[in-house]
Structures are given as structure tokens and as C-alpha cells.
Amino acid sequence: MGGRVCDFITQQLLNTANGVTDRLTTHKHSVTMLSSLLLLCSGVFLLFLLFRVRRPKNFPPGPTALPLLGNLLELNPQDPLQSFKKLAERYGPIYSLYIGPRPVVVLASQQVIKEALVTRATEFSGRPDHMLISHITQCKGVILADYGPKWQEHRRFALTTLRNFGMGKRTMEEKILEETRHICAELEKHAGKSMDPQYLFHYAASDIICSVIFGSRFDYDDPYFKDLIVMIVELTKLILDPWAMIYEIAPFMRRFPLPFNRAFDVTRRIKSHIFKVVSEHKDSWVSGQPRDLIDCYLDKMEKRADKGTSFEDSQLVAILFDLLIAGTDTTSNTLRTATLYLMTHPSIQERCYQEIEEVLGSREQVLFEDRQAMPYVQAMIHEAQRVADTLPLSVFHTTIADTHIQGYSIPKGTVIIPYLSSALREEGQWKSPHDFNPDNFLNERGEFVKPDAFMPFSLGSRMCLGEGLARMELFLILVTLLRRFRLVWPEEMGVPDYGMVFGGTQTPKPFQVTVHLTGGMK
User: Fold this and answer.
1) CATH code of the domain in which 428 resides
2) Residue 32 falls within a domain, yes or no?
3) Is 503 within the bounds of a domain?
């Protein structure tokens, strides 16, 4: 009996000793893990102190930036405009961000945008040279080229050529009206049925700019043309997608097969077509007898050949690339937006139709000068541009000198984002900032007026040079369509979705439209 008791006591002592040992071992491991964690945290903290982002003195306020990443995690990759809006609500109409290690100042009100791009136009007239789009365009052309004599010379050339375009026997207006006949023919094929209008409007807008710069248009059924339009649409999405932001942080990663390389591939393919057209023009070009913008440019090159000039082949290709991309995507997406809102607001469509009929009467064809007698139609078109918000972040600027705005200091080389959406929906600037309402552009007497906050083409010296062409296209195409067709929302589509798809240009989500031939809105 006594032996069993001794054995029992011995076993308990052994168990206790083993438990103590296990606890000591566990404690030792815990201490080791805790020490490792503390060392890791200390290392991260030291790295943060070493690489932390310090805003310049008297710089606009903004959220705390992480080393290397900056504030990229603050931006919703699918809908960054909501992030820009929330930051404006938090920090005010001028605030700063860091895209990777680079400081960016966001202008988020009509007043601030105007002060920077108009009052201080020269200081804010630069362009970034480190972004994906900058490297794609090689900072040439008239959109992404940096401010200076070369850019000024080429912008002046492009503006003059587009404004005074009347080569041969046709004016710009006649070219657009010709294209409306192709649009109508395509819509008539789908009369009474639903169709997706996206590529139809892209085809039309692209053909108009192609007729101006290349002297010819494509057939809508041309397989190459269809492929070209798909590439243009794709490129406008690639230049500001999340992979473009990664490229911004680490451009050396271009050597790896990552998605942003697709942008370079698409650009090469589009430019290869442009090179081909330029080569064909050189073979048939006759000095002093221009057929299109290319011929005008070749004339310039000849006249200045022995004087030293910035007019040369690579700049010509860059200008053609700029005009082709900008002239295709922005106008077509505005036409799509107008179609979406007109068919879901039948009373507005009816009122436009009645005004068109009153002005045109028995006349078959609309003229651009008719817009003066159509204040409601003009108001509707401008409202479509406002809600389309096609270039919500404009094209990024940089400061070319140390400057200031709203009491803040902005160092030379700072990237500037004119957040145009903020002005186009700014409270106090519009009667109905969040609704589709042509009354936003009508005074109490029903006359057309254009508020200062209307800036879909941006402002100042970098303002879109295709504004005049776009205004003419939108008026002539929409008036023609509203006179010949009734646009109806298909019942099978359910509730309309007015949400937008973000990109270099913002686009409506895909939708269908039913078209009916009409001699009146019954």
C-alpha cells in the first residue's frame, strides 16, 4: 500500500515538473515570437521614417501617404471619381495626393479650376512626362506635348486647319451631314428592333475625323475599321486603369509581360495605319493643293524645309494619332449618353422634336446656323455633355514654374488634376446638378445660356482644340436623328442604369435602344 502511494506521489511530481517545463518552453517561444514581431515592427517603422512622404511647405492638405504607394490605396480602382469626390468633401476644393512617390494637386471646383487654367494659364500649362500615356505618345503631338514653342506652333496649325477646313468642294458641315446619312441608313436597318448604339456612333465620329485628317472615310462593314475602333476604345481604358497606376510607380516593370504592355502594342498598331496613310499621301501629294490635314502639313514642311522647323514626320504622325483618338471617343460617348437620356426622358425628346419641326418646317436638311433658333435643343445637347462628363479628370497638367493658388504654394513640376466632374455637378452652379435637365442651360425667358461651370472641354491654353468640330457634330447628328426617329427604351432592359465606366474617357454602360421611323412623335 505504502509503495503504491509513493509511486502515485512520484508520478504526480513528475507530471508537475513536465508541466512546468512545457509552460517554460511555451513562454520561451512566445517571448521569441514577440521579440521577432517587435523587431519587424521596428524595422517597418524605421523604413517608414526613412521613406515617409513629406509634403512641401504650404502644400495643399490631403491624406497621409504611404512610402512608395502614396495614396493609391485611397482610390477605388473601379470608381476613382467617388474617391476624388469624398476627398474634396473632406479637404476642400484644392487638395493633394501622392500617386506613388509623386505629389499631385487636385482642383475640385469651378473657381479653382478657372484660377489655375485661365488666370494662371502659363504656370499650369505643362504636361507630365513620366506617365504611361506620356510614354505612349513620346510627349509629341498637340495633346501631351510639353508647353513651349514647338507645341504652340503645332497647336496653332491644328486649330487653323480644323477651324477653316473647307478643302475641295465640301465644307466641314457637309462632311458631317454626309455621315448622318450613313447613320440613318444603319438605324433604318434596325427599325422596330433593339440595337446597341455604341459602335455605330464610334464609326460615325471616327469617319468624320478621318475624312478631315486622312481625306477619306471607312465603310462601317470594313473589318479593319471595326478592329481599329475596338483598339481605340481599348486604349482609352488602358491609359488610366489600375495597371497604369502600377506603371506609374515602377515603369521599369515594362520589361515584364504585364497588362500595361497592351497599351504600347495597341498604340503601335494604330500608328502603323497612320504611317501607311502618310506614306500614300506623300506619293500623291501636290504642293499647294491640299486635300486634307496631312496635305496641309506636308505643305508646311516644304515651305520651312530650309529654315529650320519643328514640322517633321514624327510630329505629323503624333498629331494624327491625337486627333484620331480624341475625335473618335469623346464625341461618340456623348452621343451615346444623349441617346440614353433622351429615350428615358420622352417628354424632353418630344419637346426637342417640336422645336426642330417649328424651325425647319418643310426644309429637309438642318444647318449648323439653325442652332440659334433652337434654344431648347441647344440646352439639351449641352446638358448631355454635362452629364456625359466624358473627360472627368481632363488631361493632367504640370506646373512649369513655382506658383501658388488659393494661398497654397505649388512647386514647379507638380502634377495637376483638373477634376472637371466637380464643376459639372457643383452645388450652386446648376439648377439641377444631379439630374438630366435642359433647364440648366435656359434662363427665365427660355433663352439658351451657358454657365461658367460648363467646362467639358477644359479651359485655358490647353482647352480641347476639337471643341468647334464636336459642337457641330453633336448638333447636326442629334437634330437629324430626332427628326427621323423616335428613340425608345426597350422594356426588356428593365430599369435604366445611368452608371458610367471610368477610363481615359468615361463611357455609359452598355445599353440597347429601340428606334422607330417617324414623321411625328405620336
Assistant:
1) 1.10.630.10
2) no
3) yes
